[in-house]
User: Which sequence fits this backbone?
């Protein structure tokens, strides 16, 4: 019986000594910026997008020439409260401000041009009508472009009718 009491006391003492370290180690680690994928592929909670926007902004502040950081920052801001705010004036102004800042930091990059186009188009990405000919006819365009722009016009006209 005496051994049992001593064993229990030692075990309790060990738990009391180790517990503070366990709690300290279990504390939440600071988050690292993660790649922000399109919400079509991976959907995260709104708080996650807000936190990622903050983390990517900090990374941009450290290195404004980081293309990946700009792209992920833009996506995090865009997808935060996406369904509620995507068509609001405030969201569009914020995204245009990010694009303007990108233009100063990484003007010739793929990410800048891609996100600039994405921001200035509607949700379907159908803002560009392609090169126009003097007569405005599709047949006057280069042969490689004719079929693409013909299909695009059919697609756009289909959705405008509805």
Assistant:
């Amino acid at each position: 019986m005496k051994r049992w009491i001593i064993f229990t006391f030692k075990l309790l003492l060990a738990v009391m000594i180790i517990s503070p370290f366990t709690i300290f180690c279990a504390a939440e680690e600071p988050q690292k910026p993660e790649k922000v994928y399109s919400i079509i592929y991976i959907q995260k909670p709104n708080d996650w997008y807000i936190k990622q926007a903050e983390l990517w902004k900090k990374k941009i502040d450290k290195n404004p020439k980081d293309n990946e950081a700009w792209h992920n920052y833009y996506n995090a801001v865009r997808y935060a409260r996406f369904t509620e705010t995507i068509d609001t004036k405030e969201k569009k102004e914020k995204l245009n401000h990010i694009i303007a800042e990108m233009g100063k930091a990484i003007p010739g990059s793929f990410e800048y041009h891609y996100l600039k186009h994405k921001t200035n188009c509607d949700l379907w990405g159908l803002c560009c009508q392609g090169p126009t000919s003097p007569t405005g006819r599709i047949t006057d365009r280069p042969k490689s472009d004719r079929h693409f722009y013909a299909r695009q016009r059919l697609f756009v006209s289909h959705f405008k009718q509805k």
